[in-house]
Amino acid sequence: MGIMPLDRKLFRNLDHGLLIVILLVVLFGVVIVYSATRGDHTQNMGDPLFFVKRQALAALLGLILMAAILSTDYLVFQRLSGPIYWVNLGMLALVLLVGHRVSGAQSWVRLGPLAFQPSEFSKVLVIMTLANHLAGKGEIDSLAGLASPIAHAAVPMALILLQNDLGTTLVFGAVLLGMLYVAGVRGRDLGLLVGAGALASP
């Protein structure tokens, strides 16, 4: 089963409270952009709503993507886990070639009026593919069993680190630890992993 038409059953099964919070946060973001840029006549391209329109467009695209994902059977993502992982790596590698440097990190890509960080999409993609990877491994009861999931996350983390984006790399590390914990990895092994990471950090 692939993409399903939106129906009443799907809407009834949604967490309506969470959906309302998401919409309020999106609206709040647009209002904040308006408040911060309405008096800036040096960078708004002559249009006082330039940044608001750009933020609203990005929000609309995000909501459309959210609706598309909600109406897709999760088993589709499970079957496509391998291709999704390689597309993710390709996207992060492409940033090293065509990315724009902002605040010292070469992690931004421009598409027309929109600028975005592929590493933000990568967070979601790594969670999806790593979850499928861990589900296929079963119980991880040894340090040796950690090698495969760590390698799965380490490759995109290395590509992001090459973009000089240490902050996002650390977020990926926290996501990895959290998912390993949920997968049942022993606290002692996680502690050893954190210690090894601390020793390896610059």
Task: Describe what this molecule looks like in 3D.
The chain is mainly alpha-helical and 202 residues long. The protein has two domains: 72 residues, no CATH class; 130 residues, no CATH class. 69% of the residues lie in helices and 6% in strands. It is built from nine helices and three strands; from the N terminus they run H-H-H-H-H-E-E-E-H-H-H-H. Strands 1-2-3 form a three-stranded antiparallel beta sheet. Strand 1 and strand 2 form a beta hairpin. Helix 2 packs antiparallel against helix 3 and helix 6 packs parallel to helix 8. The longest helix is centred in the first third of the chain and has 22 residues. The chain starts with 7 loop residues before the first helix and ends with a helix. The model has no long low-confidence stretch (mean pLDDT 83).
What structural class is derived from the secondary structure elements? mainly alpha
Mean pLDDT: 83
Contiguous low-pLDDT stretches (5 residues minimum) are none
Strand order of the largest sheet: 1-2-3
Task: List the defining traits of the structure above.
2 domains; 202 residues; 69% helix
